Fold these 4 entries.
Entry 1:
Amino acid sequence: MATATQTLEELCINSIRFLAVDAVEKAKSGHPGLPMGAAPMAFVLFDQFMRFNPKNPKWFNRDRFVLSAGHGCMLQYALLYLTGYDSVTIEDIKQFRQWNSRTPGHPENFETAGVEVTTGPLGQGIANAVGLAMAEAHLAAKFNKPDATIVDHYTYVILGDGCNMEGVSGEACSLAGHYGLGKLIALYDDNHISIDGSTDVAFTEDVSKRFEAYGWHVLHVPEGNTDLAAIAKAIEAAKAVTDKPTMIKVTTTIGYGSPNKQNTAGVHGAALGADEIALTRQNLNWEYEPFVVPQDVLSHMGKAVERGASYEAEWNKTYADYKAKYADDAAVFERLVSGKLPDGWDKVLPTYTAEDKALPTRKHSETCLNKLAAVLPELIGGSADLTHSNLTEIKGYGDFQKGQYQNRNVHFGVREHAMGAICNGMALHGSGLIPYGATFLIFTDYMRAAIRLSALSQAGSIWVMTHDSIGQGEDGPTHQPVETLASLRAIPNLTVLRPADGTECSGAYKVAIARAKENAPSLLAFSRQNLPNLAGTSIEGVTKGAYAVVDCQGTPDIILIGTGSELSLCVTAAEKLTAEGKKVRVVSMPSVDLFEAQDAAYQESVLPKAVTKRVSVEAGVSFGWHKYIGIEGATVSIDRFGASAPGGTCMEKFGFTVENVLATAKKVLG
């Protein structure tokens, strides 16, 4: 029962605080300060505003919550436990940060039901939230009717000083302001402390004015530690503004209640210690043992289960009426949310013959995107201000803009990192959208964190990368990727594909779309320069990662392995070697990752161990290829930066010619 000195609300807030304190103390690891300071705003949000169903965490029309300041994850785990999610029990909280626990050191969407996106690298969460809000706006514009609203939810975020310092948040919030995402509401935990101490040492800008300049609606709650009414009033005001996202600056005290450590960096990322916990319990009048929650709190916050069931039942009725009136739209909606692809979707992907015109693979990519867009309404995306270089416009589907959210071409501006994180948010929205983001391959360096997180968090994003080698030409080494493919191939769960011609481009998109629906990302690398279509390429071959495009009778004397723009060099060199009496196999390896996923028998059939004479040809670094060429093989590669010259000149000067491939092969043959 609430006591005279503690209201029920205070008991709930202190329960959140002490679950965090006790879990971090037991683990001897974690970040108690943020949960202690942000507990009031989080309690108000979950208790009064959030619409969700703890017993069905994937209910479509739930509000999405993102803890962008993911180091404070015990805040979220406490909320999930107290509101009745089955994914987090008190035993899970006791196992915070332990092996195989459902309460890892930062929130992971694939580990804990109720966690929408994986956060921790600061700024990623707020950028993901922009993607979540864009997905909501797009689907609402596509499916809602004047007499039936089936897509209607908010995206709420708690972010901190660190998130606001990271550049990705600025990129994403700038774009959110431009798009006027009125259902995006961010609560900024303004506590003025980071790991190095007071933020005064490095961060003194006026964040509110910055967000106003972005086009956000900005509010301030000066007393975020205790003024629950002001927090609630601010959220209500935020919801009333429908044409702008809202940032609510909530000024708090990190580690609130700790007599000696609150408002210091000491409570940011370390356990309080037994003595300080005892003082904090005394200071906040908390008489309960570790991990004990008052029954009044469990009863009150557990009402979220009943509310959630009611929210979902109400929505189900609305949806049933919608389905009766708009059966065709409902069928599309249900397919999207189910994550299924329509039958025969891949039949639209073209194949080519050697007689077809040579084109850049980026042009074939454009063809694939447009053919797929016609049969996959879930395909949405765009470029980081390189639409007409990446060739990523899906024609006839309009530009996603404020008030035109039903359209499918997204202009991210020169914001590669935000583009990546926003696409991940859209992919993780749970509505079956397949987002794609495009730039030059070299600029994956600007979005590496988001690409890595797409792989880690099982986000079905597609990364469309063009200008994939020194063949990019005149822009020079700043724009010519040499080490990039090798570094991307090192990311687990990211499928990297570098197709050689039009047919292989179709194969790459077949793989990428299918993997997106399996909650996995793909990265496609396309050429700027024209490439011939080759007789032996196939869509099926691409799906296996590597396959023979030219073969011989019996055991080959030598195997030439090529990718992308260099495969045709291997094919022509093989013709010359064959004319000289050599038995040659040419293997196209558009995806090392997919080849490694094949069984040993298939791998042996493509690259038999008995054939030790091998040459790999790729306009990038040799790193990674030695696994496939062995000690008797050689690489035609570039282990230095490129140069500014026409693309053809660069390729010639760095040895990517038929003559050099032929000479290298002869050297290997001895």
Entry 2:
Amino acid sequence: MARCPREFRCTKKGRAYGDRSVDDTDRDRPGLRPRTDAPGPVVAALMLGMGLAALDGTIVSTAVPQIVGDLGGLAVFSWLFSGYLLAVTVTLPVYGKLSDTFGRKPVLIAGVVLFLLGSLLCAAAWNMASLIAFRVVQGLGGGALQGTVQTIAADLYPLKERPKIQAKLSSVWAASSVAGPAAGGLLAGYADWRWIFLINLPVGLVALWLIVRHLKEPARTTPRPPARIDWAGALAIFATGALLLTALVQGGVAWPWLSAPSLGLLAGSAVLGAVTVLVERRAAEPIIPGWVWRRRTISAVNLALGALGLLMVAPTVFLPTYAQSVLGLGPIAAGFVLSAMTLSWPVSAALSNRVYGRIGFRRTAILGISGALLVLLAFPLLPFPGEPWQPALLMLLLGAALGLFQLPLIVGVQSTVPYEERGTTTASVLFCRQVGQSVGAALFGAVANGVLAARLGGGDLDTLARALDAPESLTAGAMDGLRRAVDAAVDYVFVGAAGAAALALLVLLTLAPRRFPVLEEGTRRED
């Protein structure tokens, strides 16, 4: 039998634990994995749940004109996205801890029910304020869906088989994110914008039935003391995250960065962050345990995937603007340019086990982020105005590189913790990625607006978009100047994204251990 790489030699209580290959793990040992009557239905439920969470992050975007026309509230409509993002992000660590304490199934069921309740309420909204409030309810359920689905996927499959299920979830996430705007536009244009939320109900009910019917929680091999929920810590984390993300999302949009609201929110989040640390240190069962940051592997993966969230803002937010404004493509064609990344990412992720099975998790991730760094640096070198196939090719290469980067880190870090710590670990990784996206949106938005202001003497992306939507009102020279300004702004954003990739590479080179301490299945870690 072939011996596995040294990185995959399992450890038990910090000591080497033999030379067993990855596929020799005791995958049927009692208490290790959720028992299922049929793995297929459970995987289908996970994919449906992941699709719901991803779709609702983007599906509202193209229906905003219809929603505002019906409900009003143009001044605050951005909170339809911000409210959902805030609720998902700040609840991730809470749900991760709850899934480790009470099990995955009840948390996932509660998340699906809460998400469907929020969807039903959104469809019944009577004004913009009520719709924003109900989107927050949706986000509270979406946080449970994102974190718990990823955790159950790791529970269901041994190390060698995890890339397959993670690649499926990645493909569902990517396809749903790209299809969301198109689906929202079709429903709003040919039916009614309320169907954007009502369509979640049959899909979610099918997922809920599959989970209740087929997913069985594992029997614990050792008794646990009565669970004590750290409600104070959960509230502190929620409040801290809400203030910080509100400052990042609304700063430079609803008010200037150096205005009283921005400075007040940032100062308040810093104070609450200090309070959260004190509360968590004193808690018997903290929501975010100290070991999440004390262990080099987990802290390195958290920081690296936080940088991934930062750099992903460039292609997902600014590339469609580039495709429409600089290349002159329509919304659907611009979506196809971005979708090239979603084609190569899951394929690369599915094949990544062939790479990290030979050279290890860390080296595979270094290979992937190095490739992503080169691709991001190549984007500013594209000619003006260029051809659509050129950015599409770069996105194809970027997706392939990031598939080699993200999945080995997620699979690797999940394999270094036992079952009872996996939910917390997975949630911390996703939380850092979400925070990275919020920081990236604020940071790169400020960069783009700064470049546009310098090139055009004022204005922002919204003003620019309105001008480009009515090209007949501009002279040929003015239109060319606008397009060149957008080209320059997006180039600077991609340079910033390359800086985020370089930061992730530096974290892997300096902080991540050379070999991830993979645990034998069923081992309980002792710190």
Entry 3:
Amino acid sequence: MRRDGQGGAGRPAGAPRTAAAAARPRTAAAAARRGLRAVILAALATASATASGRLPALDLDRVMRARAAILEIDAPAAREILKDADPADLALALERGRLAIYEGDCDAASAILARPALAATAEGAALGDIARGCARATAATVVVHDEARGVWVRLQDDEDRALVPLLVEVSAKMRDVLAEDLGVELLRPIRIDLVRDQFTLSAMTGLPEEAARTTGTVAIAKWGRVTMLSPRATPNGYPWLDTLAHELTHLALSRGTRDNAPLWLQEGVAKREEVRWREPDPLDDVPSADAIALLGNQRGLGHPLDKLGPSIAMLPSAEEAAVAFAEVASFIRYWTKQSGDRALPELLLRLKAATSDTDLERAITEISGADLATWDKRWRAYLATVPADVPPDLAPGGDMPHRQEVGKRVRLGQLLHDRGHYHAAAIQHARAQALAPHEPAVRCHLAAALLASGERASATPLVERVQDVNSRYGRWWSLHGLLHGGQGPDADRAFSVGIELDPLSPEVACEEKLPPELPGDPIRSALCEAARRVAP
């Protein structure tokens, strides 16, 4: 779901959240049977209209094997199963269209799914809409395929090419992390689409655009790939690499369970895994998922775990989405701590063969010693013991105190700074910082004005201790790196964290260097040049 520079996934006050975005049936097997029935009826109708009246062949076993391979994101196996498929078999044609979508060949998928008999079925029509939306969005795109590391990236904007090395690096790391944590290995290539806006995100995935805007969705794992917004699409970037890790976890869960994982499991595990590719950050659990889940339920914003709906991205508000993410993250953390590290891989393996909700319940009970309802009660009893001391601006539905006055002072300070009146700008930013002492963006504006005024000693404490801020913000880290050494391992780590949050801000990407100076690392140098080219 949505993420931006103001915090991690599922956090309030502008923090983006990520969600797998299509309505999930109870089990993929049940959905397959429903879809096949519709296609069979369409085939019968087609046969009755032909001159011979002969029924097109329906190789149901082959269809089911192909669909299972596709849902496991095993394109080579699916291609082999569908090789030399009878063009008259509508059910097999549907799977050929589905496979083309999974492989990113949206033009081929559109052509296959345009057949009237397929378009007349609900599943064929839905897949056709996705294929056509994808084909429109990917016209004249750029594909970068790192075959050595098994990552395929399609860019809607060539200016995002500088982001590709980092996308590839995190994808390769996450392949190893997920194999270790979940017992699931993502096959090569991992496919990533980087798009300009939520309209394209919606067209390529099927998530209603209104839902994407309501909950602030910036990334979706669907159709065997990750589709995510370019960091340039949000004013201060967003935790784009954590977002990628989150969505890759969704793909691993879909592959490992044949798309049978319920939503609470999908999102809870994705939240758990999204930070495991990197070093821990002191703000990773600020505010605590436990505390947000507790407060959200107390304020009527929570949902039962098994009644979150088809997708967190489709909840009525960003606040409810934030609470839902906190709930599932808190529950999975509690369940895995109580059940042991091997419980998750065992559960995924059991879900792969599930055909009903009963199979899920049985698997949970046999693996962990209690059913979901019992675990839910235990977890809620645990939540009741959690301190709920969350700052008002980070609480569900909360807001920054004095927001209007803070915004006015920051804006006036920016105008003064842009005109070279750095001392006067610092005065306005200092007034804003007094009203919002823990807001990192305000601290950065003040620090930048003080630096421009030659008051480095006064600027340094503003970006010294991460404990003094309440959310992750890209420029806080780049200023921290500059003012606390400027070079060496600690500064390098600070600059890296800044890029993880806001890679196309010139100040962050360029490690606070002024043109024409560039960072020494070639990847960061290219990122700096790209950020300067696209800066307003």
Entry 4:
Amino acid sequence: MNKQQQRAAKIARQQQLVNAAKAANRSLTTEEQSEFDTLQREIDTLTAEIAAEEAQQQRQATGTNPEGTPAPEGTPTDAQRAVEAERTRITDITAMCRDFGVDPADYISNGTTVDQVRAAILEQLRTNRAPLSTSVQVTGSGEDEFRRDASDALLLRCSRVAVENPTPGARQLQGMSLRDLGIECLMRDGQHNASALLRMSGDDLYAELSRQFYNPTAAFPAILDETIRKSIVYLYNHVPTTFQAFTTTGSLKDFKQTADHEYVIGGVGDFLLVPENGELKADTPRTDRLPQRKLDTYGKQFSMTRQAFINDDIGFLTEVPGLYATAAKKTIDKQVYKLLFENKAIFDGKKFFSADHRNHITTGSKPSQASIQQIILKMQQQVDQFGEAIYITPRTIVVPVGYEFDLAVILHSTQVTGSNNNDINPLYNYPLQIVQSPVLNALAGTGACPWFMVASSDSARGIQVDYLNGQETPTVRRMEVPGTLGFVWDMYLDWGISVRDFRGIARNDGVALPTV
């Protein structure tokens, strides 16, 4: 078998590998890809050798270069330049045909130019308005689709993030490593030779991708950004915090304190009787200034290191950012409970829970039928800023871990526990939501641990968590950090916690919790 026949056989074997993958609607396996790449290198070598032999035969026959003059020693002849041009033509055609699932054999053997192959593929795409066939690497009909496919494919490899509705092409790309994904993105940019990319080491490929990291239109960093955002949103929303069960959510447009002219209107008094032909009397409502609200910024910086990229450690994309997002939400949770536990002065200069605020039971006790009734009645007897009676509806009892089972008995027993007279339990099926938090246990340690009653938000304000422009999940942005070997991102979230009104929450100082 001569070299031309060997080359044709290797090209045919490449096509068999591609056809088998297309028939099974899958990508090339690792073994198939390795064989394909080996065959390509052998094809390139045979092509160069064939062209060199043909040029040598021409020189032996004439003793001159094609122009009929002796070739200077050490100067590349036209034949040598032709060999290099042929090698480049075959490599480019093979890479282009692989992207679109086209057999490159006929184009290579017929001497078709790269431009002619490109024109033929584009013409058929225009005619059919669809890809020629299902490619083993190209999964979307456009760049946006490919990026979504690749992002979901990376998340599918992560055990902590559930992808409920992965894109159609995500499964096909799921087996791609970060190296494979980087090569695919660089090939799509149209500025890199496929064979050259495949021959790159992991370190060289990392260096090439690093140059694109700060390009806003580059595909690879955009895929990393999208993957990180999806991971953050999913894990942030699944953090088992409890502050959101009894606080309200607000939005502020900047970091300044809320304006001093914000007031609550009240004290209008009763409607006055108007006799026949009588005169309506003018009235000026009294006002009281609301507490100030302010935002602060909290954040972290993280990176996917050069070693993590070379080692294909996708945890730096799918899990580490989510862990930071989880920490952000837990920080809010802890700050809310510290506000309840530490009982510091609030907007009016008095302690949050105090005799002046009529929301503090200092004779601490554990939740019981009597203590729950006592704290409910205390809340329902509150008055507004102007001394007028208000309607408060207790809806949530906030307790440390350890009271859940006692509360289940108290709220769902038809009779008073321990009563000899079969007394009816007035709290039976009382509409209270139970919220328990281990943060209170941690804050109390071995000391007395307080518990709280919170009113419904439509009957009385309590604690509010504000976010900048309503953005409740952390923001991520790429950063350039000199001297850092890795891809770096900033993650930050803007929030502020304020007491809007002390009347919506009451406190029992509690007792020390038994140790288990």
